[in-house]
Design brief:
By secondary structure, the protein is α/β, with parallel strands linked by helices. The protein has one domain: Class I glutamine amidotransferase (GATase) domain (Rossmann fold), CATH 3.40.50. The protein has helices at 12-21, 32-37, 48-57, 61-69, 79-84, 179-190; strands at residues 3-6, 27-29, 40-43, 74-77, 85-88, 100-105, 116-120, 130-134, 139-143, 148-153, 156-162, 165-168. A 7-stranded mixed β-sheet has the order 2-1-3-4-12-11-10. Strands 5-6-9 form a 3-stranded mixed β-sheet. It starts with a strand and ends in a 10-residue tail after the last helix. InterPro entries: Class_I_gatase-like, PdxT/SNO. L-glutamine binds at residues 46-48, 106, 135-136. In the presence of PdxS, forms a dodecamer of heterodimers. Only shows activity in the heterodimer. Pfam families: SNO (PF01174).
Length: 200
């Protein structure tokens, strides 16, 4: 199976690198044709407003929504989470794909200067804490009934799953810890797809 990284803006190279380290060969997805060629997608952090404009300019917006609604596995981090969410609480009229039943607050943990790291306990990836990096991170304000919370920080969910979607407020690609990406790869395999491995 081909796993893509949405490659129009944001932390693209970091996700490509960590996926390779996890043993798969990802594709850099920059247009609708490339989007249609992959069977799972990573949506990186970046600047959500810019990402939305570019997705629409490259005629990928509706195609991406349709693929996710059809069950394509997705891992979304930081701005990627904002794009998936049903509602953005603190920005008037910002569009979103509306596929993940959460409401978020942009920069909910503060601006760039307020970036921080914290150890999180995520039982589904193992007993050792995961070092999470928060950079202008969105804060989840509410979740719907189908959303499962995998871990929280300071009383708010920061890693959630709803069916084929896995979304994190933080940047799991920045620590070198492969466990969240490997968890996503297991989601992909459970969806009935075979993963395209890196050449030995």
């Amino acid at each position: 199976m081909k796993i893509g990284v949405l490659g129009i803006q944001g932390a693209i190279q970091e996700h490509l690198s960590i996926l390779r380290n996890a043993g798969v060969e990802p594709s850099w997805v920059k247009d609708r044709k490339e989007l249609n060629s992959v069977e799972a997608l990573v949506m990186p952090g970046g600047e959500s407003t810019t990402m939305i404009k570019l997705l629409k300019r490259f005629e990928m917006w509706e195609a991406l929504r349709n693929r996710i609604e059809d069950g394509m596995p997705v891992l979304a981090t930081c701005a990627g989470m904002i794009l998936l969410s049903k509602k953005i609480e603190n920005v008037v009229n910002q569009d979103s794909l509306g596929v993940l039943d959460i409401s978020v607050k942009r920069n909910g943990y503060g601006r760039q200067i307020n970036s921080f790291e914290v150890d999180l306990q995520i039982d589904e990836i193992g007993p050792e804490p995961f070092r999470a990096v928060f950079i202008r991170a969105p804060k989840i304000e509410s979740i719907g009934g189908e959303v499962r919370v995998l871990t929280s920080y300071d009383g708010s969910p920061v890693l959630v799953r709803q069916n084929n979607m896995l979304a994190a407020s933080f940047h799991p690609e920045l620590t070198g810890d492969l466990r969240i990406h490997r968890y996503f790869l297991k989601m992909v395999e459970a969806a009935g797809q075979s993963i395209e491995k890196c050449a030995e």
